[in-house]
């Protein structure tokens, strides 16, 4: 490699990545990295200083996201990213708090926290990398695994029905709900930017292939999944979330399901209990 | 704007005194969940925090309550939660996260009878081993045991100071009796209350290491937004805070976590002695049980038995050296606690070969002094 030029072009997102932690752990063919890039792009697009952001992850493949972003970031316990983020947001409301985690983390073990943060309209942005399985532990059935799909703990097919995540978010009180896939990188980045700017609980589901642990068992190669994302999805902003179940035979709806204006938890707390400035108070003590 | 510290003499219960202690210590965030007999801590502080510029939230469960106080702590403020047995069990996962990420916070357990739902409205001291070992993995913790509403106030302040000094969760191990009893509580003037805050890092931000120990074995701690771009993880991590899956990193991290407590025992351990100088028999007790133990000591003395009391204010880390030192010159120990033998095991471990016995109770009541006397007489 002696002939390699000494000056290499800088990646446009390099200032947001902990380059000393690269290479990352994500498998080839996985969509988490692309979704993570869209998230970083969105942060950059907002033009908000990086120290006004914080990222919180739970456990799992996408839960490692917090470990690669070069801002104050927290890799918490399984399912608990949202209550951790809630603590940050309430104590320092000027921060933009992003939860970046997976479907197993956010909707099985952490499901209770999700519905309550949505109900409160806590002003945080939750990005769910949905790969339909527990990737890191080897492909067990998840709360999002399609009915009849195979996993390492449902070898004859999943007997259960998966969550429709946009519908769950909507029903719980989220005020911004969207779904994209890792193939729709720019739409996803624009949507995340919009969600960060949105006042209130925003939720974005980002579909991602897991060729190693979901695709392999369900006879679906990485490119097959991308082809489905391209051919079998329908972008329909304002669609009814009740129709958003993931069924590629009839087509999967993408886009912004809703964005409504409603006072955030912080706004209501301040209005009803007075100004909350915990950090300023501490300086005087 | 109401005063931040309610200086004066009050007649309040232990739970309320605890909440006032937190306010006086500088606590500005409380994440809670209702549970008997700790609910009054949350109720009281939910009213008080907005007066002092703080925030209160009632979370969806104790897991979330405990987790929320860690997130809030990283914004640079002092945080607390309060619960009882069943909620304490749920918090154990996040207690481990607090320990490994070296996040200061205070956790109050107003103990009730167990196991499981147990005796919600009756006191016990049966979570003393759970607080020590309840989360998985190896670690050291700090736990204090208040004996009165006044101590609920005083020790809550000390708990915050220890927590900020050692970057670790600190536990107030109270019980239903102390939590619900009302007594005189004196709140001093603000200038007389000693409060400590975690040291902030100085120096180059790009060279900063989140867990590089300072002189007392503890690293300074930045807040979110200070520009240090910290990464905080529950995985085994190096001094920078980055996850490293290696035996060497595990060893280095564990030595730091254990060392910062084990090497500062003199600063952390608080005990109180009553008639110990010439004592031949030592009653070891803590919390509400220590109160009946004073009477037992006096009654024993009246009967000609030279008894004395060692009251543990700090229960964890355990005062091994103190018990060993006493064991050299006394004839025996009796540990008085509302459980069937938890701290008694620690006393026995340190006292050997000097005999050590338990004056225990299955839960739901204080231990009458007569019961302690009976065991003292039978044993020796």
Question: How many helix segments of chain B?
Answer: 13
CATH architecture identity of the largest domain in chain B: 3-Layer(aba) Sandwich
Number of strands of chain B: 16
> Which CATH architecture of chain A is right?
3-Layer(aba) Sandwich
Q: Average pLDDT of chain B, to the nearest integer?
A: 97
Q: Could you say which structural class the secondary elements and strand pairing of chain B correspond to?
A: alpha/beta
Assembly category: heterodimer
Write out the CATH superfamily name of the largest domain in chain B.
Thiamin diphosphate (ThDP)-binding fold, Pyr/PP domains
What is the spatial order of strands in the main beta sheet of chain A?
2-1-3-4-6-5-8-7
**Which term fits the overall shape of chain B?**
globular
Radius of gyration of chain B using CA atoms only = 21 Å
How many structural domains of chain A? Answer: 1
Biggest sheet features of chain B:
8 strands, mixed
Terminus-to-terminus distance of chain A: 59 Å
SSE series of chain B: EHEHEHEHEEHEHEHEEHHEEHEEHEHEH
Strand content of chain B: 15-25%
In terms of DSSP E residues, the strand content of chain A is: 15-25%
Per CATH, the class of the largest domain in chain B reads: Alpha Beta
Q: Structural class from helices and strands of chain A? A: alpha/beta
Radius of gyration of chain A: 19 Å
Describe the structure.
The complex is a heterodimer of chains A (285) and B (380). Chain A has an 8-stranded mixed beta sheet with strand order 2-1-3-4-6-5-8-7, with helices on both faces. Chain A is globular. By secondary structure, chain A is of the alpha/beta class. Chain A has 10 helices and 8 strands. In chain A, helix 6 links the parallel strand 5 (176-181) and strand 6 (202-207). Chain A has helices at residues 32-46, 81-91, 103-109, 111-120, 165-172, 185-197, 211-215, 222-231, 265-273, 278-284, and strands at residues 53-57, 73-75, 96-102, 125-130, 176-181, 202-207, 233-235, 252-259. Chain A has a single domain, classed as Rossmann fold, CATH 3.40.50. In chain A, 33% of the residues lie in helices and 15% in strands. The model of chain A is unreliable at 276-285 (pLDDT under 50). Chain B is α/β, with parallel strands linked by helices and 380 residues long. Chain B has 2 domains: 8-192, Rossmann fold (3-Layer(aba) Sandwich); 270-379, Rossmann fold (3-Layer(aba) Sandwich). Chain B has helices at 14-25, 39-51, 62-73, 85-100, 128-133, 149-166, 176-180, 247-262, 265-268, 287-302, 320-327, 343-351, 369-379; strands spanning 8-13, 27-32, 55-58, 78-83, 105-113, 119-123, 142-144, 169-175, 182-187, 231-233, 271-274, 281-285, 307-312, 314-316, 332-337, 356-360. In chain B, the strands form 3 sheets. In chain B, strands 2, 3, 4, 5, 6, 7, 8 and 14 form an 8-stranded mixed beta sheet that branches. Chain B has a 5-stranded mixed beta sheet with strand order 11-13-12-15-16, sandwiched between helices. Chain B has a two-stranded antiparallel sheet with strand order 1-9. In chain B, helix 1 packs parallel to helix 6 (149-166), helix 3 (62-73) runs parallel beside helix 4 and helix 10 packs across helix 13. Chain B is globular. Chain B starts with 7 loop residues before the first strand and ends with a helix. The mean pLDDT of chain B is 97. At the A-B interface, strand 2, helix 2, helix 4 and helix 10 of A face strand 2, strand 3, helix 3, helix 4 and strand 10 of B.
């Amino acid at each position: 490699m002696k002939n390699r030029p000494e000056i290499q072009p800088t990646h446009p997102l390099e200032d947001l990545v902990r380059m000393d932690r690269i290479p990352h752990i994500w498998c080839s063919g996985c969509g988490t990295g692309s979704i993570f890039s869209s998230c970083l792009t969105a942060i950059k697009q907002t033009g908000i200083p990086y120290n006004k952001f914080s990222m919180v992850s739970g456990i799992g493949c996408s839960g490692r996201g917090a470990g690669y972003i070069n801002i104050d970031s927290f890799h918490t316990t399984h399912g608990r990213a949202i209550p951790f983020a809630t603590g940050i947001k309430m104590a320092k409301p000027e921060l933009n708090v992003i939860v970046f985690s997976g479907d197993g983390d956010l909707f099985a073990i952490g499901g209770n926290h999700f519905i309550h943060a949505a109900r409160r309209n806590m002003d945080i942005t939750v990005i769910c990398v949905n790969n339909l399985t527990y990737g890191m532990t080897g492909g067990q059935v998840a709360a999002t695994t399609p009915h009849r799909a195979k996993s390492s703990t449902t070898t004859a097919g999943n007997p259960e029905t998966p969550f429709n995540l946009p519908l769950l978010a909507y029903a719980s009180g989220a005020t911004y709900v969207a779904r994209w896939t890792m193939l729709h990188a720019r739409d996803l980045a624009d949507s995340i930017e919009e969600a960060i700017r949105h006042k209130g609980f925003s939720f974005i589901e980002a579909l991602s292939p897991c060729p190693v642990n979901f695709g392999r068992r369900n006879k679906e190669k990485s490119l097959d999944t991308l082809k489905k994302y391209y051919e079998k999805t329908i972008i329909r902003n304002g669609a009814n979330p009740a129709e958003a179940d993931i069924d590629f035979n009839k087509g999967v709806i993408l886009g912004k399901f809703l964005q409504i204006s409603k006072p955030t938890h912080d706004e209501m707390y301040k209005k009803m209990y007075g100004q909350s400035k915990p950090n300023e108070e501490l300086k005087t003590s | 704007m109401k005063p931040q510290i309610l200086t004066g003499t009050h007649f309040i219960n232990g739970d309320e005194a605890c909440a006032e202690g937190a306010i006086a210590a500088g606590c500005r965030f409380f994440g809670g969940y209702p549970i008997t007999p700790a609910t009054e801590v949350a109720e009281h502080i939910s009213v008080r925090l907005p007066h002092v510029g703080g925030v209160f939230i009632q979370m969806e469960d104790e897991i979330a309550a405990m987790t929320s106080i860690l997130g809030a702590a990283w914004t640079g403020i002092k945080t607390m939660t309060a619960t009882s047995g069943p909620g304490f069990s749920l918090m154990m996962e996040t207690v481990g996260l607090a320990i490994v990420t070296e996040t200061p916070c205070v956790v109050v357990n107003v103990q009730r009878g167990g196991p499981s739902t147990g005796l919600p409205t009756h006191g016990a001291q049966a979570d003393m081993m759970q607080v020590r070992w309840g989360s998985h993995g190896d670690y050291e913790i700090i736990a204090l045991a208040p004996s009165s509403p006044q101590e609920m106030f005083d020790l809550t302040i000390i708990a915050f100071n220890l927590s900020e000094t050692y970057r670790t969760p600190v536990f107030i191990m109270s019980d239903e009796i102390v939590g619900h009893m009302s007594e005189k509580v004196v709140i001093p003037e603000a200038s007389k209350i000693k409060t400590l805050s975690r040291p902030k890092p100085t120096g180059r931000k790009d060279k900063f290491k989140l867990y590089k120990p300072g002189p007392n074995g503890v690293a300074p701690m930045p807040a979110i937004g200070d520009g240090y771009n910290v990464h905080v993880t529950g995985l085994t991590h190096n001094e920078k805070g980055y996850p490293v899956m290696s035996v060497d990193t595990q060893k280095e991290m564990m030595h730091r976590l254990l060392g910062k407590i084990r090497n500062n025992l003199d600063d952390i351990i608080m005990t109180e002695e009553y008639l110990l100088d010439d004592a031949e028999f030592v009653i070891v007790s803590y919390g509400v049980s220590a109160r009946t133990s004073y009477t037992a000591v006096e009654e024993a003395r009246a009967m000609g038995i030279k008894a004395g009391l060692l009251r543990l204010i700090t229960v964890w880390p355990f005062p091994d050296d103190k018990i060993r030192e006493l064991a050299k010159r006394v004839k025996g120990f009796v540990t008085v606690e509302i459980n069937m033998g938890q701290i008694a095991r620690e006393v026995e471990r340190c006292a050997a070969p000097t005999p050590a016995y338990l004056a225990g109770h299955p839960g739901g009541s204080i231990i009458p002094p007569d019961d302690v006397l009976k065991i003292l007489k039978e044993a020796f």
